[in-house]
Design goal:
Blueprint: H1 11-25, E1 39-45, H2 54-68, E2 73-78, H3 89-95, E3 100-103, H4 127-136, H5 139-147, E4 152-159, E5 166-168, E6 182-184, H6 187-195, E7 199-200, H7 208-214, E8 219-220, H8 225-231, E9 239-242, E10 251-257, H9 258-262, H10 266-301, E11 305-308, H11 311-329, H12 333-365
Parallel strand pairs: 1-2, 1-3, 6-7, 6-8, 9-11
Antiparallel strand pairs: 3-10, 4-10, 5-8, 5-9
Helix pairs in contact: 2-10, 4-5, 5-12, 6-11, 8-10
Length: 369
């Protein structure tokens, strides 16, 4: 599915709109080497500035757009809270306060329940499988349809890979250990945990560490070892759990104000979209490399204790996930179609992943199980 957007207004109208937006949001534009006015945009994010993983991804996209455009276009990054609150970026782009945001779709579950499918679903698609669904299985068209009423064009814009299961102050040995557990876990994973007796707490990334340190929450998930280590969770919680049943994929999204995007010259619009697409591969490779090193250092140098969810806990989580997904899919027709499309992709890809990846890893590692 192509990500190209065909202007809905005349080029003259769109360019006027884009110029007016830039004038109201930014100081007078600089001049490119060619003498033409530089197009300057604002990017707002849900992340602390240069947070390993999504924060660096956001900055890389900004830098790549400027380089690829030969300086004709610049995107200035505003980290969480610098221009709008971390969870206010969707509304900021919809209203035109900023032309683009970097964030994750599960934050918008309250606004549109189906948004969670475009970051991760518990026990769902792995990163490559998710990219395949978006690009080959009809996912992008459904994503566009979901966000269209808000005047927003979404695209994949980086991936932090398979997530970890979370940081806990105490070990999880049985289902009873989830009862009353206050855990920061957004998206559907949090709802599944609630069904098993836990209390999910919604917190933006910048508020997680103080909440865990103060005891406001007993546990938290975030991303993988690299980003988690940078957040400092290992200083206040030593039990680090896997697998990340709730987020087997870490797709970040770029949200574009459609009027601003459509107002760009065609070559710059292509550059912007391709910069995001290129970041999917770069960031996923970076996350895999850095996560491997950080997991080792967390255990060897910081005393973190790696643990795995007991099988009975995973079984219960899996059962509740099926119930939650079924209830969510029944909410409206578009959510039902998104769920059906995702499930169809998983049914198609899972057998191949078992043959190609799972069996190979078992053979490579000499796993006799």
């Amino acid at each position: 599915m192509s990500t190209e957007i065909k202007p809905s207004a005349s080029r003259r109208q769109a360019l006027k709109l884009g110029a007016a937006s830039a004038a109201s949001l930014l100081a007078a534009p600089a001049l490119a080497n060619t003498g033409e006015a530089v197009i300057e945009w604002k990017m707002v994010t849900s992340w602390q500035k240069n947070l390993p993983g999504p924060g660096t991804t956001a900055q890389t996209i900004c830098d790549r757009i400027e380089r690829m455009s030969g300086g004709r276009m610049r995107v200035r990054l505003f980290a969480a809270g610098e221009l709008v609150p971390p969870l206010g970026v969707f509304d900021a782009v919809s209203a035109g306060t900023a032309q683009v945001a970097h964030t994750a779709s599960f934050f918008w579950q309250g606004k549109m329940p189906a948004a969670v499918w475009f970051t991760a679903i518990p026990f769902g698609l792995l990163p490559l499988e998710h990219i395949t669904w978006i690009e080959q299985g009809g996912g992008q068209a459904l994503w566009d349809e979901l966000y269209a009423p808000f005047g927003i064009k979404p695209v994949m814009a980086g991936n932090t890979g398979v997530q970890m299961g979370g940081w806990f102050r105490k070990e999880i040995n049985t289902l009873d250990d989830l009862a009353g557990l206050k855990i920061r876990m957004p998206g559907l994973g949090g709802e599944v945990m609630r069904r098993l007796g836990a209390t999910p707490v919604a917190l933006p990334p910048g508020e997680i560490f103080p909440a865990l340190q103060s005891g406001l929450i007993d546990a938290t998930e975030f991303l993988g070892p690299w980003s988690d280590q940078a957040m400092g969770f290992q200083k206040v919680a030593k039990f680090y759990y896997a697998p990340g049943f709730h987020e087997p994929n870490g797709t970040g999204e770029a949200l574009f104000n459609r009027t601003a995007l459509e107002g760009l010259p065609e070559d710059l619009r292509t550059i912007v979209l391709e910069a995001c697409k290129a970041e999917n591969g770069r960031s996923l490779a970076e996350s895999e490399w850095m996560n491997a090193g950080s997991l080792e250092s967390l255990q060897k140098e910081e005393g973190v204790l790696l643990r795995f969810y007991p099988e009975d806990v995973l079984d219960a989580l899996r059962r509740e996930t099926a119930v939650v997904l079924g209830e969510l899919a029944a909410k409206d027709e578009l959510t039902a179609r998104i769920h059906a499309s995702y499930s169809k992709a998983q049914a198609r890809l899972a057998p191949w992943s078992r043959v190609s990846v799972q069996r190979f890893l078992a053979a490579r590692d000499g796993d006799k199980a």
